[in-house]
Design goal:
By secondary structure, this protein is of the alpha/beta class. The chain is built from seven helices and ten strands. The two termini are 15 Å apart.
Length: 263
């Protein structure tokens, strides 16, 4: 019997620094919404099933962020096979920190493709150096190569832009993917989408990309992914059903993209 290499792990974590809560319940909401969508992706020409559902990693929201990161990182290092292709569903964006550290220990170097309305490169946010608003800065300080696409808001004077940060998505991503030879990890903050498409986020920013553009971006990564995460969906704000079904479709697309990478 063929081993199933595409897997899904929910991570029920959100830090104290969040303006609004709710992201910790997103993994369970998305699983429920998955029941309402088709199994087949017309965008990537594949079925997202079968995949192995690993359940949820539960972290009490009031935990210290570094304690959470150490525990999750250690669990992943012990239990993830280098041939696995896992979609991590958060939770807030800080989950990318322990996930990326663990996967580097398993796979070696890789590039991070970061789709987000925000840069997430503050040094300190709400008194903490380790949270959803500082996560990309912390990873870059630890030597990760990160390319950010789709940002349209940042804290001037508190964050930085580089030649690896882009306000647009498709054209710069095409250029970057032609240049880099490393495997790729995708971290997808759903607020990269316009709020008219995905309203259930805690920090919506107008002027975002639309659904078909995001589908094209995921298509560009098909076959190159060692893993991916989807973060920052909050089912307690906005039109949660509309956003939940959209998030479920994104999970389907990411699982299909990971299947191509595992084959």
């Amino acid at each position: 019997m063929r081993t199933i290499r595409t897997k899904l792990l929910g991570i029920e974590y959100e830090g104290k620094e969040n303006f609004l809560g709710g992201t910790r319940i997103a993994p369970s909401y998305i699983r429920w919404a998955l029941e309402s969508i088709e199994d087949y992706s017309p965008y990537l020409n594949g079925f997202y099933k079968p995949f192995k559902d690993l359940g949820n990693f539960h972290a009490r929201w009031e935990w210290d962020s570094l304690k959470f990161a150490r525990i999750l990182e250690g669990c992943l290092k012990r239990h993830v096979d280098g041939r696995d292709r896992i979609l991590f569903v958060g939770g807030d964006h800080f989950i990318t920190y322990p996930v990326a550290r663990a996967l580097r220990a398993i796979h070696g170097d890789f590039a991070i493709i970061h789709l987000d309305a925000h840069l997430d490169r503050r040094d300190i946010f709400e008194g903490s150096r380790y949270n959803h608003a500082t996560v990309m800065r912390r990873l870059e300080e630890e030597g990760f190569t990160i390319y950010t696409f789709g940002y349209r808001a940042f804290a001037k004077g508190l964050e930085y832009t580089t030649d690896r940060t882009f306000m647009h998505v498709i054209e710069p991503m095409k250029d970057i993917l032609q240049e880099i030879r490393l495997p790729v990890y995708l971290t997808l903050d759903v607020d990269v989408l316009d709020p008219s498409v995905f309203p259930s986020v805690t920090n919506p920013e107008g002027g975002g990309i639309h659904f078909k553009e995001l589908m094209e971006a995921i298509g560009l990564l098909k076959g190159r992914l060692i893993g991916a995460d989807l973060v920052e969906f909050s089912p307690i704000v906005g039109d949660h059903y509309k956003s939940g079904v959209t998030a479920a479709i994104l999970v389907r697309e990411l699982l299909v993209a990971l299947k191509y990478s595992a084959s």
